[in-house]
Amino acid sequence: MVQFEFRGKSGKYHSVRINDRRLATIVKRCQELPGYDLFQYLDAVGQRQTIGSADVNAYLRQSTGQDFTAKDVRTWAGMVLAAVALWECGVFTSQTEAKKNIVQAIEAVARRLGNTRTICRKCYVHPAVLDYYLDGSLPAGLLPHDAPEHSPVLSGLRPEEAAVLTFLKQHSVPQAMLSQKAS
């Protein structure tokens, strides 16, 4: 297990636990490097180099061949978390109940991402997810088995991600938004 504790945006304190033996081994090796910064590495000539957000974004662009940033990954995660939270709320009996469920789902995503509800809803949850929940089509269309298992576009996605992507594609969310978030 690895526990990351850090101060994020707006000085908010975060504590995140990850249970992954491989990651723990990598972090342990990084901790053994001298210096203040945890995320660092030794380059080809043995010089210590730190890793910052520009490095992470460059890695994402290089590995995907697309113009992705860490914010894109975070936005995709927020959208998937919201869709799954709403799917778990299930069918509602009134618009009042539906709106309460949306608030509850947005609160859960905001806690997970370390943002306010307002920022989470505005920046990290695609409006189509909320619209489809309000019109009653999201719960019925977001079952994990609804995503094709062997689609090349969906390979590497968790089942809930594949289901969200499939649902959004079937409901005519603009392709540019989907291809950017799904790769």
Outline the structure in words.
- The protein is mainly α.
- It folds into two domains: 50 residues, Topoisomerase I, Chain A, domain 3 (Alpha-Beta Complex), CATH 3.90.15.10; 113 residues, Orthogonal Bundle (Topoisomerase I, Chain A, domain 4), CATH 1.10.132.
- The chain has nine helices and four strands.
- A two-stranded antiparallel ribbon has the order 1-2. It has a two-stranded antiparallel ribbon with strand order 3-4.
- A hairpin with a 5-residue loop joins strand 1 and strand 2.
- Helix 3 runs antiparallel to helix 4 and helix 4 crosses helix 5.
Entry summary:
The protein has about 180 residues and is mainly alpha-helical. It is about 55% helix and about 10% strand.
SSE map:
Blueprint: E1 2-7, E2 13-18, H1 21-31, E3 40-42, E4 48-50, H2 53-64, H3 70-89, H4 95-113, H5 117-124, H6 127-134, H7 138-141, H8 159-170, H9 175-182
Antiparallel strand pairs: 1-2, 3-4
Helix pairs in contact: 3-4, 4-5
List keywords for this structure.
elongated; disordered C terminus; 2 domains; single chain; Topoisomerase I, Chain A, domain 3; 183 residues; two-stranded antiparallel ribbon; Topoisomerase I, Chain A, domain 4; mainly alpha
CATH arch. level architecture of the largest domain: Orthogonal Bundle
Assembly type: single chain
Compute the number of strand runs.
4
Strand content: 5-15%
Strand order of the largest sheet: 1-2
User: Any idea of the CATH topology of the largest domain?
Assistant: Topoisomerase I, Chain A, domain 4
Judged by helices, strands and strand pairing, the structural class is mainly alpha
N- and C-termini, Cα separation = 28 Å
Summarize the biggest pleated sheet.
2 strands, antiparallel
Share of residues in helices? 55-70%
Number of helices: 9
For this structure, what is the CATH class of the largest domain?
Mainly Alpha
The SSE string, one letter per element, is EEHEEHHHHHHHH
| Structural domain count | 2
Q: Measured on Cα atoms, how large is the radius of gyration?
A: 19 Å
Low-confidence stretches: 175-183
